[in-house]
Amino acid sequence: MNSLASMLRGSGDMRTPAIVMVAGAFIVIPASPLLIFGAGPVPGMGVRGAALALVAYYLAGSSVLAWRILRGSTLVTLRPRSPAWRYFAQILKVGVPACVHAAMVNVAVSVTTGFVGVYGTAALAGYGIGTRLEYMQIPIVFGLGATLVAMVGTNVGAGQLERARRIALTGGLFAAAICGAIGGVVAILPELWAGIFSDDPEVLAVATQYFHVVGPAYAFLGLGMALYFSFQGTGRMLWPLACVTLRVLVIAAGCTLTIQAFGLGLGSLFGVTAAALVLFGLMYVVGVWRYFAPPPK
Question: Are 69 and 4 in contact (CB under 8 A)?
């Protein structure tokens, strides 16, 4: 479903994928508890019901999007033909590094989780509440990123590198403003988010500490992730891999030093996490300024 949606977005149709996914969400959200617990003539199926609802959602969404591509007035056409292997190489040139980048983002959180776990289950729960909000911001940036891929790619292909750079930085700053606003709110009022998940004082104290330290750095998370999508539009993916690798290395090295070498507390781990996000975003800015520079006249 996501691949078909990307085809439509690339053709300029942003509306159809949005309608299908939003409408599907309004269906799958009530269908999930119905199939899990059952009601009236519908028997409860437990966890299998959740799986069935999700599979049905993807199947229905894929069918609608495929119909739109085959029958609608789009720039995309699907017809039987022999594979053109050169296109597979072009797709994998961007797709494989993108998969690695996504995995490394999760590795960064996993490494931090391992260090936080030293401080007990309450610390893990509080940190988990914080990272859930971090993950929630990625789909928001994805909405901007899908546009940046198309717009930056079009301008790079046309040789308009200066315009591509302005588009990338504008999108990056817009994402930074959105994520920074979210981070600023929870830094001031952490209970707005943390209170949804727990009323345990220890857990809330850890979550509050996390948001006080890391919340303001969410702006750099949005900045970096938006510029990552801009790089997808250029087909140059080595710099994004360097950015996310730096984030993981800073977390691993910084957390090791703060705990083992300096014996600092949990707050220091959150400080390392925030510093890694800042470097992540700034390194992307350097990359955009470097790779999107127009050739000298």
Answer: yes
Q: Are 35 and 53 in contact (CB under 8 A)?
A: yes
* 105 and 198 fall within a common domain: yes
Tens of pLDDT, residues 194-229: 999 999 999 999 999 999 999 999 999 999 999 999
Q: How far apart are CA 45 and CA 93, in angstroms?
A: 42
Coil vs helix vs strand at 39? strand
pLDDT (tens digit, 9 = 90+) per residue, 43-100?
888 989 999 999 999 999 999 999 988 887 666 666 777 777 788 888 888 889 999 9
Q: What is the chain's length?
A: 297
Q: How many domains does the chain have?
A: 2
Q: Taken in order 159, 98, 69, 57, is the CA torsion positive or negative? A: negative
* Structural contact between residues 61 and 204, judged by C-beta atoms closer than 8 angstroms: no
Q: What is the pLDDT of residues 224-272, one digit of tens each?
A: 999 999 999 888 899 999 999 999 999 999 999 988 777 778 889 999 9
Residues 40 and 113 in one domain: no
The domain in which residue 135 lies consists of: 89-291
CA 117 – CA 259 distance, rounded (Å): 12
User: Are 269 and 212 within one domain?
Assistant: yes
Domain assignment present for residue 82? The answer is no
Question: How many CB atoms are closer than 10 A to CB 12?
Answer: 10
Q: pTM higher than 0.70, yes or no? A: yes
Cα–Cα distance for residue pair 288/281, rounded to 1 Å: 11
Quote the tokens at residue 98: 């993108």
- 163 lies in some domain: yes
**Is the same domain home to 23 and 147?**
no
- Dihedral over alpha carbons 276, 278, 281, 282 (to 10 degrees): -110
